[in-house]
């Protein structure tokens, strides 16, 4: 058959990978490193040369490896876990990513690399490696300790932020510049897309999977999962985002399915096969000459990764209220880079905006920091003892006071319940508004095409616009009403808290009612202005607008209860899917 | 990233395959048919056109599908099952394959197709489809009935014979002619290769897998399995056999591993993914125009498959001593063609010896016979009743008498034990001789290369040959000695049976001893002649030969016990692997 050279490549990759991983396992090093070394051995830059013939096909398979890696990361992600991670994870992850991007950028500038290389270096250093950390904590049997749980929380937040970084970098790479307006617009659009995709996905996909799972055929379930995965990736690519984002999102959506355990089971061997090819393909690209030429930057970057992550994550954990020892452990556990860095480096290469040396440098730094990880984790406790002995007493007292102060300002009892309620209401309002905005965005996006389609019936462009805009408004009504009701509840709550009888005396009830009515109305007006701004391209003339708003108001008034019922049913479906989940 | 068209192809394939398989499952039809229909829908010959962009990559993945299909077939095969299947399976499978190849060839000639097309058509019709039969019997809940067990036995023998057919066809396709000498030589070489590969494989591979499994990492086990699978396929390809053969053999070898259940578990999702691509790729190639043009041959071939397989398998089962009802059920259960036919048709296409229409015709016949299978199985009992009523009483009595006669001639009690012993001894002698022949073959194959390597030390070509031949003889000694001892045991057994005291009187003991000594010696001489013939290219001069034989005889005499011990240890290792298997 004609694909013998391809089979030969696969045979060589799998054979060498198999041998090297066994060796690495015996040396108690992560399998991932073994794959990279295997790729290095069979690569074109080291003897024996020419073991791989069909490098293009291998690279295509390696991209499948990236998709499956991110898909499985998404499967392990789960929104519930994100909701559960505490302040520590958010603060530490933000601090780490900001600091590391900055440090990376500055290092690049120091070595006189160009702006893109510096920027990508920053992104490469930003995200720690889930694979490596899980492996190390497993080996050290520390997986169930508190600091390990904190680390997993940080990793979850990092995944989401990493996805954002990839989307941002793609945009920046295409436009070639970094403007804050663009960054905000990209982040906004991305958040909007993610929220909409997650809401619709969680409403549809788990139901679909449950239907297919009824047939009790592993094969059919697998093919459906793969179809959804690749199909969603394709959709995301058509929307000009990265495939990586699509794979992660659809994984996160499927993580809410009841078939999660089964799906993980079925997809894991496929991921293992393709990710092995991916990591071997990384090794293939390493040229020892580049490593020698860039030995100095590699050393600097390695030190920067270890110290930068240790300090930023440790500080973040401390600021969020953990004690010094735990904070240090969190910081030292996260001190490495891994698969995310490879994906970002690969992105730079395929977009052709980074230099050739960046990839091997990233791989080298990842290899070194990976090797260091277990030692760093084990060194955390002795180091915190040493630090405790060295740090002068007054400084230590300040740190202690900070912890006490933090605990004192944290809402307790009724206050904490209230804070949680407000958070929940704001989240719900946010999601509803995101859906409304998405509806108008979609309308604006398709307006021209729909216009052409309609032109036989409605010739006047203004009238076309009016119809589309009106339809969008009608579709948004359930979400707008829901948002309005939530906002009203929030303002009543706020009025109750802020207007005390001691202050307003006998006017208390009236003032409270005014506040409770005014705030939601004001917010609604702001929302309308926002929508008008966003959908400016398809905004009809003023007369039409007035007419539509009046009609919409009438519809809303008449169908108020029905809209609420529809929305409630969707909300229940969503919460059921999120809640009905077997513990895995 | 650059492989977007490829991802798009995968997305389209998986999405359509997912939808169509769900529909087919609801229609209670095999998923395989669904894949083919999905391929037909997205194919270039039917609207919507142009859904698939990167057909080459899809075909490469489809070949991976063939490899994984055959590998999993090998995993389910297992030598023990082959040893256990009774005469029914062998007789029915032989009869079926011979008849179907002949019928297929004649049909091809009838439609004035060329010789190669006719021959491949015969081969395409020869093997029934395990996938379809298992599915149908599952659906009908008949999997545990006696006739189903007989069918599974036939399928196992068919697999082995099918592998032989593929090897033969490859040889014939390259040389362009069919000579009986060539067929015998191909079958001989193939059997030799399979025996050697199985013996060495079963000695080495399960041990290796057990070692890797100790690390309790699914990933490492999977990568090792894939490495061995592709590596072995590559070796087989280098020996100019088909990759399909390699995948099946290494599967059969791994079937003897204790990790079988785990391996099946890990490989199944990968097989499902790639075999889906394989079957979809089959559908891609169907051009409805060809189907219309060849409607008449398709109808004839379909009838031939159903009737031919029904009669040949039914008759085979009956000859082997089953009652009419069971025989009919066996025959009607096997009345279809499937994956093996696709593989053979694909072989013809990639070797470029068959016409373009053969593949779609095979697919069409397979689709129709697949649809018929469940109805045929259900129709078997009514048909046997009808036949019982129609067939005239004398004919029925003849059939009944045949069954009785067969039971009367079957060895009973001591006779049966004796027959089993003789069979076992002959099998052991055969395996040992196969290994000896393989050693000399390998020697002859590498003789020239080794000669060049040795030329610095030993310049005389005759002397070189003597050394290589001598080394081969030395390596063969343990197996020769084992064969000799088994033959001696056999001749003693035969002498005991054939020379009765009533006949030979007081000479009984002496005659027996003579027979017991003469037969093994004669056999050994025949073996030596055979070896000399096979290794003629590297046979040394007569003086050298004499010297070597004398030396070998001396070595054999001195190390006799040691050789026996080595051989016994190997045999124990082999039997342990074959015996120590968890029931799956």
TrEMBL record, chains A, B:
Keywords: Antiport, Ion transport, Membrane, Transmembrane, Transmembrane helix, Transport. It holds the Pfam family Na_H_Exchanger. The keyword Transport applies. This is Cation:proton antiporter. The chain crosses the membrane at residues 6-24, 31-52, 58-75, 87-107, 119-138, 150-172, 192-213, 220-237, 273-292, 298-320, 357-377, 425-446, 466-484, 514-538, 544-564. It comes from Pseudomonas petrae. Belongs to the monovalent cation:proton antiporter 2 (CPA2) transporter (TC 2.A.37) family. It comes from the Bacteria. It is found in: Membrane. Residues 13-376 form the Cation/H+ exchanger transmembrane domain. InterPro entries: Cation/H_exchanger_TM, Na+/solute_symporter_sf. It is a multi-pass membrane protein. Signal peptide: none annotated.
């Amino acid at each position: 058959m004609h694909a013998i050279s391809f089979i030969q490549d696969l045979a060589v990759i799998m054979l060498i990978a198999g041998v090297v991983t066994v060796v690495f396992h015996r040396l108690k090093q992560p399998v991932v490193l073994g794959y990279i070394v295997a790729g290095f051995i069979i690569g074109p830059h080291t003897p024996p040369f020419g073991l791989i013939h069909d490098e293009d096909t291998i690279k295509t398979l390696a991209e499948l490896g990236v998709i499956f890696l991110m898909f499985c990361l998404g499967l392990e992600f789960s929104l519930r876990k994100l909701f559960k991670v505490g302040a520590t994870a958010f603060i530490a992850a933000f601090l780490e990513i900001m600091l590391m991007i900055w440090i990376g950028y500055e290092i690049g500038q120091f070595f006189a690399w160009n702006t893109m290389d510096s920027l990508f270096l920053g992104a490469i250093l930003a995200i720690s490696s889930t694979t490596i950390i899980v492996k190390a904590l497993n080996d050290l049997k520390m997986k169930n300790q508190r600091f390990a749980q904190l680390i997993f929380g940080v990793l979850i937040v990092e995944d989401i932020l990493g996805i954002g970084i990839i989307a941002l970098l793609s945009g920046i790479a295409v436009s070639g510049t970094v403007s804050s307006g663009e960054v905000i617009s990209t982040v906004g659009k991305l958040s909007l897309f993610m929220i909409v995709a997650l809401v619709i996905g969680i409403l549809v996909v788990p139901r679909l999977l449950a239907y297919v799972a009824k047939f009790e055929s592993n094969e059919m379930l697998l093919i459906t999962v793969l179809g959804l995965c690749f199909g969603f990736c394709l959709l995301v690519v058509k929307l000009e985002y990265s495939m990586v984002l699509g794979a992660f999102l659809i994984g996160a959506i499927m993580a809410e399915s009841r078939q999660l355990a089964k799906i993980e089971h079925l997809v894991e061997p496929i991921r293992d096969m393709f990710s092995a090819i991916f990591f071997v393909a990384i090794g293939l690209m390493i040229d020892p000459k580049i490593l020698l030429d860039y030995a100095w930057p590699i050393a600097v970057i390695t030190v920067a990764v270890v110290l930068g992550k240790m300090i930023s994550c440790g500080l973040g954990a401390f600021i969020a209220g953990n004690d010094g020892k735990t904070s240090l452990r969190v910081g030292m556990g996260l001190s490495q880079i891994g698969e995310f860095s490879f994906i970002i480096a690969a992105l730079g290469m395929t977009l052709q905006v980074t230099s050739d040396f960046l990839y091997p440098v990233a791989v080298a730094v990842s290899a070194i920091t990976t090797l260091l990880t277990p030692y760093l984790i084990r060194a955390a406790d002795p180091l915190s003892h040493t630090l405790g002995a060295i740090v002068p007493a007054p400084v230590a007292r300040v740190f202690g006071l900070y912890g006490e102060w933090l605990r004192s300002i944290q809402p307790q009892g009724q206050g904490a319940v209230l804070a949680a309620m407000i958070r929940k209401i704001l989240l719900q309002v946010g999601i509803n508004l995101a859906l409304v905005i998405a509806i108008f965005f979609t309308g604006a996006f398709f307006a021209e095409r729909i216009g052409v389609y309609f032109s036989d019936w409605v010739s006047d462009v203004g009238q076309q616009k009016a119809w589309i805009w009106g339809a969008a408004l009608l579709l948004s009504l359930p979400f707008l009403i829901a948002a309005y009701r939530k906002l009203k509840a929030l303002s009543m709550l706020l009025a109750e808290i802020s207007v005390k009888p001691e202050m307003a005396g006998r006017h208390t009830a009236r003032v409270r009612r005014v506040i409770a009515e005014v705030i939601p109305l004001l917010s609604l007006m702001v929302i309308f202005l926002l929508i008008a701004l966003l959908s400016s391209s398809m905004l009809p003339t003023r007369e039409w607008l007035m007419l539509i708003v009046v009609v919409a108001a009438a519809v809303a008034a008449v169908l108020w209860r029905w809209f609420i019922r529809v929305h409630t049913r969707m909300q229940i479906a969503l919460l059921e899917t999120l809640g009905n989940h077997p513990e895995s």
